[in-house]
Design a protein that fits this description.
Number of domains: 2
Order of helices and strands: EHEHEEHHHHHHH
Shape: elongated
Structural class: alpha+beta
Number of strands: 4
Strand content: 5-15%
CATH class of the largest domain: Alpha Beta
Strand order of the largest sheet: 2-1-3-4
Length: 254
């Protein structure tokens, strides 16, 4: 168990006219929330950043020091204080849950506005329509990428590659038409077709082929940027310190 005579810390982070390191701000906030008096030392030029990294033999900033000991970057601080650092490559369904939850809330809100009640058939129809639009939006961000990963499991796309490129637009069209209540003779069959093929494909992949799908279900939306303003040369997770096997004292302890 780590002990500290004084709750003080020293933080070196990058703040230039071109770039403010977001993880530096997060590290500063974390230290303050843990009750530390922070000596916030900003690196305001590229020369200062490079000199600091060379002096301490580190690849990234920010770097935090407590009681003269280098803890490391933001993720190292999280671990030092007993927190859990999430694996950026781990499969998560939180984006999917958030998407469908928002679609449901939007449908209920629209139903309340239109009919004064959330318990309506229209609310259910709007939920499906909004969910389809939101799902299509995620695919339309990167049609090429979606079409490529779609080939991993979709039975129709594996036989007709162009289907993967058509799918996002068909899904968006069906959702918009269902939302408007227009051309239902077109939107409903399209929705049933793409939904049916997708369901069969997923069922075969998961329950017959025993495969683990990590593509469309993940909906990786977050964008991460390097900590020092350069494109791609640093680890965005900010774990560049010694292994923080020791834990910080509980809040309020000396």
């Amino acid at each position: 168990m780590a002990t500290h005579a004084a709750k003080s810390a020293e933080l070196h982070r990058m703040v230039t006219s071109e770039h403010t390191c977001p993880y530096g701000l997060k590290a500063l906030d974390l230290l303050k929330r843990e009750g530390y008096d922070v000596d916030d030392r900003t690196l305001t030029t590229r020369e200062e950043v490079d000199a600091f990294k060379a002096k301490h033999n580190v690849k990234t900033t920010p770097q935090a020091f407590i009681a003269g000991r280098r803890i490391g970057g933001y993720d190292d601080l999280v671990q030092f204080f007993g927190g859990e650092v999430k694996d950026k490559d781990a499969v998560t369904y939180k984006p999917v849950i958030a998407l469908f939850s928002m679609a449901l809330l939007m449908a209920l809100a629209a139903s309340w506005k239109a009919f004064g009640s959330v318990a309506t058939v229209q609310a259910a129809e709007w939920f499906i329509a909004i969910a389809m639009c939101l799902l299509a939006l995620q695919k339309l961000k990167d049609v090429e990428g979606f079409a490529t990963m779609f080939l991993n499991y979709d039975l129709l796309a594996q036989r007709w590659v162009r289907y993967g490129y058509i799918y996002p637009f068909a899904e968006a069209l069906a959702g918009v038409l269902m939302m408007a209540g227009a051309f239902m003779w077109l939107s409903v069959p399209v929705a049933l077709f793409i939904g049916g093929v997708g369901a069969v494909s997923v069922f075969k992949a998961v329950y017959i082929d025993k495969r683990e799908l990590k593509c469309s279900a993940r909906l990786r939306i977050a964008h991460r940027e390097p900590d020092d303003g350069r494109n791609g040369d640093l680890d965005d997770r900010q774990a560049d310190g010694p292994l923080a096997v020791e834990k910080a004292p509980a809040r309020g302890s000396a």
